[in-house]
Amino acid sequence: MPANLTPEYFKAEKWYKSATTNDERILALERMLAVMPKHKGTDHLKADLRKKLSRLKDAGTQKKGGSHVDIFHVPRGGAGQIVLLGTPNCGKSSIVAALTNAKVNVADFPFATGGPVPGMVTFEDVHIQLVDMPPITADYSAPGQVGTYRNCDMVAIVIDLSGDVAEQFGVCMDFLESRNLLIDAETPAHDDESNALAKEAFCICTKSDIAKAGALENLKQLCKRPLEFVEISAVTGTGLKELAGVFYRLLKIIRVYAKPPGKPADMTEPFTLPAGSTVMDLATHIHRHLAEKLKFARIWGTGVYDGQNTQRNHVLNDKDIIELHFS
Ligand SMILES: Nc1nc2c(ncn2[C@@H]2O[C@H](COP(=O)(O)OP(=O)(O)OP(=O)(O)O)[C@@H](O)[C@H]2O)c(=O)[nH]1
Ligand SMILES: [Mg+2]
């Protein structure tokens, strides 16, 4: 083993050893190579890791066969997917039970949840997917569990305010940071090859009805990242009503309604798009080929007068009604 390997390298190596899929192993190897000190003593190790990496990438380009079922793969539904992360018994399933119709297992013993359980949260006329998950501890996460987080839109870290907030937060942050799962200046949403990498995250602080004094303030002080904290109680209902709106805001999406020319808009099924989307983005979302024929759009909504003609690059706002005109 070459000298001078850093704690960051060993973290990445731990990630590599615990990975259960080739995609995850590739990400971990890339991280090991990126954080490895560059000197003569690491030349052999570097060559070895590069060989492993290229073998894994070759395997990835070959046809995938077999009938392996990944229970941690949760197909996306709704306008965005938020996946819960937390230590045993912290109250994850209770949140999903309170906000969705999903059949989850709420229990006063740890590890009551064994696999992901998706449910739909409704915010006004938008549906957002919320996924209950098995717990993690400092030493254990289920094999493959990281895959659910890697493929979601946002991670909700759940902290039990009646427990040891520092320990819970440490376990969750270590899980996320050691796998490059948190977006920051050095960790983008996608790696150089457009594979999903890091996520936005926020904190749901639950059991506010039995919180230890000063727990939320302690937690905020511990946190070195610009995370948002939302306080709730699944038992008394405090903060629950607002939670769906918080999900919607943090997902940074907008909803817009399409209107056929000369007819009323369909106000029942909005299209949801990333905030900042344009008229052209909406047209492409509805029909990629039709979008090439888009001439202009009329809009009723924010920052325009009713029925104003706009160009393809006009940026849409939440709740805009759009009439697309094609050539
Ligand atoms: N007082 C209080 N108890 C809560 C609250 N939320 C959950 N609980 C209780 O905490 C215990 C654990 O809740 P769960 O929702 O099953 O916790 P979990 O995080 O899903 O647990 P695992 O699946 O084992 O990881 C249950 O006894 C719940 O009734 C809350 O807001 N206030
Ligand atoms: Mg549970």
In short:
With 327 residues, the chain is of the alpha/beta class. It is 31% helix and 19% strand. The strands form 2 sheets. A 6-stranded mixed β-sheet has the order 2-3-1-4-5-6, with helices on both faces.
Question: How would you describe this structure in keywords?
Answer:
Rossmann fold; five-stranded mixed beta sheet; six-stranded mixed beta sheet; alpha/beta; Ubiquitin-like (UB roll); binds magnesium ion; 31% helix; 11 strands; 3 domains
Please render the helix and strand layout as text:
Layout: H1 7-18, H2 22-35, H3 43-61, E1 81-85, H4 92-99, E2 117-123, E3 126-132, H5 145-150, E4 154-160, H6 165-177, E5 200-206, H7 215-222, E6 229-231, H8 240-250, E7 253-258, E8 271-274, H9 279-286, H10 288-291, E9 294-300, E10 308-310, E11 321-326
The structure holds guanosine-5'-triphosphate and magnesium ion (MG).
Magnesium ion binds next to α4.
Overall 3D form: globular
Quantity of strands, as a count: 11
| N-to-C order of helices and strands | HHHEHEEHEHEHEHEEHHEEE
What's the domain count? 3
CATH topology of the largest domain: Rossmann fold
The CATH superfamily name of the largest domain is: P-loop containing nucleotide triphosphate hydrolases
Q: Note the total helix count.
A: 10
What is the name of the CATH class of the largest domain? Alpha Beta
Mean of residue pLDDT values: 92
Distance between the termini: 66 Å
Main β-sheet description? 6 strands, mixed
Which class best fits the helix and strand makeup?
A: alpha/beta
- The CATH architecture classification of the largest domain is 3-Layer(aba) Sandwich
Tell me the fraction of residues in β-strands, as a range.
15-25%
Quaternary class: single chain
What ligands does this structure carry? guanosine-5'-triphosphate, magnesium ion
pLDDT < 50 runs, ≥5 residues: none
Helix content: 25-40%
Strand order of the largest sheet: 2-3-1-4-5-6
Rg calculated over all Cα atoms: 23 Å
